[in-house]
Amino acid sequence: MSRHTPEMECRLAVVGTGMAGLSAALFAARRGIDTVLVGMTGPLVFSSGLLDLMGVHPLEEGRVREDPWEAVAEVRRDHPDHPYARLDPADMRKAMDEMVAFLGENGLEYRLDPHRNQQVVTALGTLKVTYGVPATMMDGARALRRKDPGLIVGFEGLKGFSSRQVAEALGASWPALRSCTVALVPSGTEVFSQQIAERLATPQGRKDWIEAVRPRLGDARVVGLPAVCGVYDGGAAFRAMREELGLPLFEIPTMPPTLTGLRLKALFEQHLPSCGIRCRFQQKVLKASMDGSKGLLLECGVEEPVLRVRCRGAVLATGRFFGRGLRADRKEVVEPLFQLPLHQPEGREQWHRRDFFHPAGHPVNRAGVVVDDLFRPVDAKGAPVVPGLFAAGSILAHQDWMRMKCGAGLAIATAYGAVQGSLRWLDR
């Protein structure tokens, strides 16, 4: 790296742009911390857009929970090493409320019941338990509870979504559900979600859709369709379609990559800079080191460093294996950026159980960075290993976010905890 490489200084750097990193940057900036955010937001397009908090506990029983906060309390009691056990539930509520408010202020409204999870329909025709539901999906959750007669509408040529499959798979739990398929492109043409979204963003495209659907409505009191009602319009296309149809309307999250994830990606990229955050969305941290007594030095770029970031503290939110926050070789799991010690099974032969579908999951799913109550990565003796470093999100140990249905909640709540911990460090 050239000695003339540009440099940037800040009080706090956030490494990673999944939900945990984006949340940490937002929380830090709103608390007056000069913040730099580094990471590529591409993985967000794999998001369903749902904000899980805690949906299943105990895992061994596969018990789906109606009250997520009751489940959180039991997880804190039953699993004292779980990251939720290091958080005050009142702070978790503040974090979730602050994130939902931010999303809503910027055109992506969510609906949630403070004391109840919702069930939403998936593209596979299954039901998913979640806490925060995009406003575009909420009519489906309500209609499901009432078992209202409904119609699921698919699109000819759209891969990964079958309205017939959704309706038939939900037959036992939602018997008054029918399906149909309409065409917005010439028959026999393969079509992608974004193409449909672009058509539905126009008055003519919406008119064509409604004219195709109306004769098929029958006794339907609610209509569902894949999540294709606009991307960058803050829900305008969806609201127009619902009004013109004259019936409750709901979107169904599709298989990734998703427009629900693209909506989140676009929102954060557009609005985080206006919060005073200096964002480097097309770069990643390639190397990290101590910067004498001043803090940390991060070398950022794509293949080669093109920027140095000097920071007093940092939040590590690089995710697990998919986000490359963790890597696995034939012997062990490693954290590649800071070489942090990890909690993990003693040998690779213990990573997985013999039963692939074991309800408790596999031990390697709980591998990750161990933190203290300030969310500082610690060693086996509980001592912080990198001064000024904090960690948040799915990189943390002792949790199985996918099976426990707590992914977004874990990201948002631990980001809040890591920022609160960093305030103590920065204000010393």
How would you describe this protein?
It is a single chain. The chain is α/β, with parallel strands linked by helices and 428 residues long. It folds into two domains: 7-105 and 263-426, FAD/NAD(P)-binding domain, CATH 3.50.50.60; 123-252, 3-Layer(aba) Sandwich (Rossmann fold), CATH 3.40.50. Helix content is 29%, strand content 20%. Strands 1, 2, 11, 12, 13, 14 and 19 form a seven-stranded mixed beta sheet that branches. The chain has a four-stranded parallel beta sheet with strand order 8-7-9-10, sandwiched between helices. Helix 8 links the parallel strand 9 and strand 10.
Question: Can I get a quick summary?
Answer:
Helix content is 29%, strand content 20%. It has helices at residues 19-30, 68-78, 89-105, 138-146, 163-169, 193-200, 203-213, 236-245, 259-271, 401-404, 407-426, and strands spanning 7-15, 35-38, 110-111, 118-121, 127-130, 133-134, 150-155, 177-182, 222-226, 249-252, 278-280, 284-290, 296-301, 305-316, 327-328, 333-334, 342-343, 368-369, 389-391.
